């Protein structure tokens, strides 16, 4: 009886062992290729290191570009506003000299012709013409043209174009393009392109594709034994090529837009400068000619003067290299 029970127990154990072995073999048959082997951790580390090297190089290039671009803008802004200040200085100094000269001339004419009743009205007209505080007088028109605080004045229009804080100005147009914090600027788009923290950027997608922490990554699938190393390599190489090419393409496009915007703003600023110089010179000539004509009515002699502002040749410059 005891021998029979021992025999039955032995058979039961053998059957249990065979059943367990069968189940194990069936499970192994359904596992993907490569899952029976441990994942190549060295290769996985190499993939991540490759991404980190690329990301570091790309971000460093972006930082260097933005520094150069910002420095170029700041230098340009200073250059143009210094030129505005110099133009203003020249014109205001000219007005000061003419005001002093004409006031002295009026005093002399009044002394010589003040008792002449026939010239009394002409002297009053001359006094009015040289008064810079009368809006419609010849000297008043010249004075207003050079007042940058008057919105519609010649110098005022030019000064506003160079004001980076006025949204519609030419300078603000340039500033916006190179400002990475302005959400609608090409500089901001460039910043997003190279950032792996911006969710929809190609750099972010490349980062995820290189990591074992994201389900969609071939590296994740391989590390979990879901695909073979060969398949993971094929998929990753394809993704790496796709997203690095996209980053290069998008970067070039954003830089081109920045350069074109800067060049466009510069062309408009240079043209406005030429127009401003021409308009100021024209108003000065008209003012002095009108005063001179009135003086001739009194003494028979007019005024003489030389051009104040030499119209510069239009310059061509590279705003962004």
Which secondary structure elements does this structure contain, and how are they paired or packed?
Blueprint: H1 2-30, H2 41-113, H3 120-129, H4 138-145, H5 154-161, H6 170-177, H7 186-193, H8 202-209, H9 218-223, H10 229-299
Helix pairs in contact: 2-3, 2-10, 3-10, 4-10, 5-10, 6-10, 7-10, 8-10
How would you describe the overall organization of this protein?
The protein is mostly helical and 321 residues long. It is 71% helix and 0% strand. It contains ten helices and no strands. The chain has helices at 2-30, 41-113, 120-129, 138-145, 154-161, 170-177, 186-193, 202-209, 218-223, 229-299. Helix 2 runs antiparallel to helix 3, helix 3 packs antiparallel against helix 10 (229-299) and helix 8 (202-209) runs antiparallel to helix 10 (229-299). It is rod-shaped and about 115 Å long. It starts with a helix and ends in a 22-residue tail after the last helix. Residues 1-13, 17-36 and 314-321 have low confidence and may be disordered.
């Amino acid at each position: 009886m005891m021998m029979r029970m021992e025999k039955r127990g032995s058979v039961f154990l053998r059957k249990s062992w065979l059943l367990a072995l069968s189940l194990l073999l069936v499970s192994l048959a359904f596992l993907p290729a490569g899952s029976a082997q441990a994942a190549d951790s060295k290769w996985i580390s190499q993939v991540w290191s490759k991404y980190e090297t690329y990301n570091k190089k790309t971000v460093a290039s972006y930082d260097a570009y933005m520094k150069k671009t910002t420095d170029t803008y700041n230098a340009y802004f200073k250059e143009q506003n210094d030129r505005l200040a110099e133009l203003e200085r020249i014109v205001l100094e000219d007005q000061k000299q003419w005001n002093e000269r004409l006031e002295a001339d009026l005093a002399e004419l009044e002394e010589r012709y003040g008792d002449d009743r026939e010239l009394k009205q002409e002297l009053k007209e001359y006094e009015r013409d040289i008064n810079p505080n009368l809006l419609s007088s010849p000297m008043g028109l010249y004075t207003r043209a050079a007042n940058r605080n008057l919105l519609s004045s010649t110098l005022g229009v030019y000064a506003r174009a160079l004001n980076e804080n006025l949204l519609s100005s030419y300078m603000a147009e340039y500033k916006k393009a190179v400002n990475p914090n302005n959400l609608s600027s090409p500089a901001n788009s460039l910043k997003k392109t190279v950032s792996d923290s911006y969710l929809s950027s190609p750099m972010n997608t490349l980062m995820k594709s290189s990591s074992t922490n994201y389900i969609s990554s071939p590296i994740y699938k391989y590390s979990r034994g879901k695909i073979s190393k060969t398949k993971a390599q094929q998929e990753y190489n394809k993704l790496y090529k796709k997203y690095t090419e996209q980053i290069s393409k998008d970067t070039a496009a954003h830089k081109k837009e920045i350069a074109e915007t800067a060049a466009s703003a510069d062309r408009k600023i240079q043209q406005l400068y030429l127009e401003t110089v021409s308009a100021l010179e024209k108003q000065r000539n008209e003012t002095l000619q009108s005063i001179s004509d009135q003086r001739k009515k009194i003494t028979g002699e007019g005024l003489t003067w030389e051009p104040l502002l030499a119209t510069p040749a239009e310059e061509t410059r590279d705003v962004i290299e």
